[in-house]
Amino acid sequence: MNTSQGYNFAYLDEQTKRMIRRAILKAVAIPGYQVPFGSREMPLPYGWGTGGIQVTAGIIGPDDILKVIDQGADDTTNAVSIRRFFARTAGIRTTSRTEEATIIQTRHRIPETPLSAGQTIVYQVPTPEPLRWLEPRETETRKMHALADYGIMHVKLYEDIARFGRISTTYDYPVLVDDRYLMRPSPIPKFDNPKMHRNPALQLFGAGREKRIYAVPPWTSVRSLDFEDHPFEVQKWSQACALCGSTESFLDEVVTDDKGGRMFVCSDTDYCQRRRDAKEAAE
Amino acid sequence: MSPLLQVSGLTRLYGDRVGCKDVGFELWPGEVMGIVGESGSGKTTLLNCLSARLEPTSGTVAYDTREEGLTDIYAMGEPRRRMLMRTDWGIVHQNPRDGLRMGVSAGANVGERLMAVGARHYGRIRAQAAEWLEQVEIDTGRIDDLPLTFSGGMLQRLQIARNLVTHPRLVFMDEPTGGLDVSVQARLLDLLRRLVTDLGLAAIVVTHDLAVARLLAHRLMVMQGGEVVETGLTDQVLDDPHHPYTQLLVSSVLQP
């Protein structure tokens, strides 16, 4: 693909990228702490990944290989357009293979293929503040973070159990980073929460509308909140992926007709496709 | 033995206007002190200053902490002050909606303080919540109901349970019976009296209702225009008022 003319490398001007990198450095130094930054207007609407795209633009270099996923898929509108955006404005290589990528920008999933040291995963975050729906005042939530005053988060989990008999929060499940800051892991399913714990890759989070950047450095502890008698659990499925037969991946339910027909398939398209390819090659 | 709360020279100004002026007293463990006076006499300002919610312009409020004895509450750091407010103290608001989380169930409301101080066992938190609901005469079958579905009297009792769950030593109450009808008031007063005696609580009760003060308080402080005009044992103040304002206040009570 050819590079578009008239843009700085990776769209943003150098001063802005420098500002974003400073915010990232601070975020990495204080795991889980939300660093404010001067979020710019990007050529895509808020909610489509303006935070993630700015973080990616801030860290990307000419040698990087970019993978972008949306709900685990490489071929959805959002993923395709962000990948093309960077291919055009930075002229970098893109890929859909998880282990090949140096930067993975994601919305709603962490790839099934384990990440390795040296990789960076960039999350698109709609609402960075974990206490937002419990405490509407920003001044108060900041104070709660400063004092590590997080009891109220357990009130929400208590309420879940009292109503549904179990913790019914299934995505954006609150975590405690490095045993200090409460963090919203962006709307990934809680199935992916254990993958964040002591992950060798650098994890960066960007919220464009809310103008916040936060980070989990490699090998940092990320603990999901729970009760002693209601421990944290991830989702389980009674069947395997209908396409690749995996029993270990996160499955999406796909409605196939209007007569109640449905199938469960991997949400990570790269993982699923490669398992199918491997099976075919073996036969 | 040292006083639980030691207040001296407490003044709070709102610009040129006086909220409360030069208030000083000592509160001893297990003692219930009433603050009475007309509307605008500075009762609530004083209570807010005492309960660490409103920084005074001058003067000190020292509280007998479990670790270090008498400590100025405005000189200690915010984390410790918050800890104090949710463990050793209780604050009962006049309007229970100010003191409760209306969006979560009664059980969660009572359990919140426990979770804030580190309780992480759902079963035990729930058991304690149920026990406290029983203490304040709320049917334990309503533990999962939202406070929105409770009556005014039940809300006030729920608020009291929520405050007492961490076994505080000092409770601040701002018009605890305001806005309740008389029969509910009587029940609430009975309950408060029983809890205060059983648990050995010290309390500061702000009220404009002299009957409430007579029932609950051991000692009274009468305020007018931000200043304390008379103090003494409740019966003494109400039966033999000395200050002209107190005489007016006592004689203004309607007899049915």
From TrEMBL, chain A:
EC number of the protein: 4.7.1.1
GO MF term list: 4 iron, 4 sulfur cluster binding; alpha-D-ribose 1-methylphosphonate 5-phosphate C-P-lyase activity; metal ion binding
Superkingdom, taxonomy of origin: Bacteria
The entry's keywords: 4Fe-4S, Iron, Iron-sulfur, Lyase, Metal-binding, S-adenosyl-L-methionine
Catalytic activity reported: alpha-D-ribose 1-methylphosphonate 5-phosphate + AH2 + S-adenosyl-L-methionine = alpha-D-ribose 1,2-cyclic phosphate 5-phosphate + methane + 5'-deoxyadenosine + L-methionine + A + H(+)
Family recorded in the similarity comment: Belongs to the PhnJ family.
Identification of the protein by name: Alpha-D-ribose 1-methylphosphonate 5-phosphate C-P lyase
Native organism taxonomy: Bacteria, Pseudomonadati, Pseudomonadota, Alphaproteobacteria, Rhodospirillales
TrEMBL record, chain B:
GO molecular function: ATP binding; ATP hydrolysis activity; lyase activity
Pfam family, one: ABC_tran
One Gene Ontology biological process: organic phosphonate catabolic process
Localization annotation: Cell inner membrane
Domain ABC transporter: 5-250
Listed GO CC annotations: plasma membrane
UniProt KW keywords: ATP-binding, Lyase, Nucleotide-binding, Transport
PROSITE patterns (alphabetical): ABC_TRANSPORTER_1, ABC_TRANSPORTER_2
Membrane-topology descriptor: Peripheral membrane protein
Name this protein carries in UniProt: Phosphonate C-P lyase system protein PhnK
Encoding gene per record: phnK
